[in-house]
Structures are given as C-alpha cells and as structure tokens.
UniProtKB/TrEMBL annotation:
GO molecular function: hydrolase activity
Annotated Inosine/uridine-preferring nucleoside hydrolase domain residues: 9-296
Organism in which the protein naturally occurs: Pseudaquabacterium terrae
Pfam families for the chain: IU_nuc_hydro
InterPro entries cross-referenced by the UniProt entry: Inosine/uridine_hydrolase_dom, IUNH, Ribo_hydro-like
Name of the featured protein: Nucleoside hydrolase
Keywords, comma-separated and alphabetical: Glycosidase, Hydrolase
Length: 309
C-alpha cells in the first residue's frame, strides 16, 4: 500500500463509545479510505446506532462517508440484545451535533452492492458489532464475504471468559447464528476477541492527556471515554481498525473455530480447535492474542491530533 493509495474500507458497527473512537481513528488515518459505514442493532437499537455513526463522522469532518442503517434484530430473536453500558444514547450522554442524514438504502443492500462492484480482494471489511448485517448479506449473495480482502471482526472470547456470561462476548452473544454464518463463509477472517481487547486498556492519565489535543474530535472523545472508562476501560473496537494499517501492533495465530448457536446456555461461545471440530461447520480464522497497547494508544492519539489540525 503506498502513501498515495489509501486502502478502501467498509465498516459495520453499532456505536457505542468504543465504536465511536474506532470511527474517529479510521477517519483520522490517511492510510484508510472509508467507502461506507453500515450500522446494526447492538449497543443500542439500530435507529440510534446509525444516527450515532453519522454524528461521529460529521464530528471528524467525514461528511462524505455515507451511513446506512441495517438490521434491527438478530436472526433468531424478536428483539435486539442491547445494553446500557454506553448510556441511553450510546455515547455516554455526550451531545454531538447532527449535520448530515443517514443515507437511503439498507445496510445489507449496500454491502452486497459494494462487494460485488469491487474487484475481489480489494475491499477490507471491519465488523465492530453483532454480525447480523454481514450474515444476511452472505445469505443474500452466497460467496459474497469471500470477495473481501479480509474481514476483521471484534468478537468472541477464545481463551478467556466472556463479558456477558462465562461463555460469551457481547457481539457474538447478540447474534450467535449470524456469527456462525460469517465464520463459516470461507472468508479471510481475523478475530479480535476479549483475548486481545482486554489488553487495550486505557488509563485515567491517558484519557486526561487527550485534553491537550486540538479540535472538537479530541474533546468529544475525551468526554465519551471519561463516561465509559469507569464501566469498561477497554478500547475493543479500536483494535481491528488499527490492525488494518498497523498490523505490526498485534500477534495472531490460525485456529479452527465455530460459534455455538444451538445451546441456549452457551450460545455465542467461540469454540476453538477440537471443540469447534466437534460442533461441525468449523472454519479457519486467525485469533489475535497480543496487542502493543502503548503503541496502540499512541496511534489513537495521533489520529485525533490529525482531526484537529
């Protein structure tokens, strides 16, 4: 990748404070060219997550990036499995102005259209929320996800306990069948689960240091992170975005994986190796297990500084 040819990127997300920071990181990184942002129900209902994504991109000056709302509930549930970790508005009560509008067109249609229009292996796809939109796009157009250069997923807990219950991380728990469909689609996959995101820990001093950065994006990021850090001081969704242009910050290894979606008690559990093979429909994915946290935090701060320049 040359400095004059930013990598084309699709982001599927459910903002969420950590999603918001991931969007700011992407918008502030000259190595990336965000083609579209699609939203799903997750941290909050999809009507809220799509508006939040629009607000964050407007804050970053990325007004030209379209935001599309997608699936309002998981594949096998009547209602979304949302939470209030990020506050009722999903952004910790930090009011961001809404200058643009959520674009017409359902997220599923947009994902299908953009991936089919691009040459295979040219679009990178980052998924930061429940995988409902991606799974539906794959069901709509079988083989679609294999056209992505790579799919970087924030989800799962391979070698550590979950954060919803002992078995599951929130994104995979929110739509376990969708997660299994995506993992078994034959795409190039890299999973950023709790195994690595629990290392991406913010300190109070680092959050305070953002006050020295110029511009409204850094100020808003600091306010959101102060609201969030007391509950979950981890930058989950920053990790897969950073890995797109700074893969040296992470270590990973290939494993055979599947997601439990039939067993109600363990639904959303990421199954690895022998357990995955026994479950059937297993696939190969790279599981990320180490992050260079100081360099990652510095990367985020540099992106915020660029946005304020």
């Amino acid at each position: 990748m040359s400095s004059t040819s930013p990598l084309p990127l699709l982001i599927d997300c459910d903002p969420g404070i950590d999603d918001a920071l991931a969007l700011l990181l992407a918008a502030g990184s000259p190595a990336l060219d965000i083609r579209a942002v699609t939203c799903v129900a997750g941290n909050r209902p999809v009507e809220q997550t799509s508006l939040n994504a629009r607000r964050v991109l407007d804050l970053a000056g990325a007004d030209a990036v379209p935001v599309h709302a997608g699936c309002a509930r998981p594949l096998t549930q009547a209602e979304p499995r949302s939470n209030l970790v990020h506050g009722a508005d999903g952004l910790g009560g930090v009011a961001l102005p809404l200058r643009g509008a959520v674009a017409a067109g359902h997220a599923i249609d947009v994902l299908v259209e953009l991936l089919l229009a691009a040459a295979p292996g040219t679009l990178r796809l980052v998924a930061l929320g429940p995988l409902t939109n991606l799974a539906c796009a794959e069901l709509r157009s079988p083989g679609l996800l294999r056209r992505a250069a790579q799919i970087d997923v924030m989800g799962g807990a391979a070698f550590c306990p979950g954060n919803v219950n002992p078995h599951a991380e929130f994104n995979f728990y929110a739509d376990p069948l969708a997660a299994q469909i995506v993992l078994s689609a034959g795409a190039q996959l890299q999973l950023f689960g709790l195994d690595v995101t629990e290392q991406a820990r913010m300190s109070d001093d680092w959050i305070a240091s953002l006050a020295a950065l110029p511009g409204p994006a850094a100020a808003a990021a600091q306010a959101m992170l102060r609201a969030y850090s007391g509950v979950d001081p981890l930058l989950h969704d920053v990790c897969p975005v950073a890995a797109v242009f700074a893969p040296e910050l992470f270590d990973s290894a290939a494993h055979r994986v599947a997601v439990e979606w039939r067993d109600r008690e363990r639904e959303g559990r990421l199954l690895v190796d022998d357990a995955a093979a026994a479950a059937g429909d297993s696939a190969i994915a790279r599981i990320v297990t180490r992050a260079n946290t100081p360099a990652l935090l510095d990367t985020v701060a540099q992106a915020l500084r660029r946005l304020g320049a």
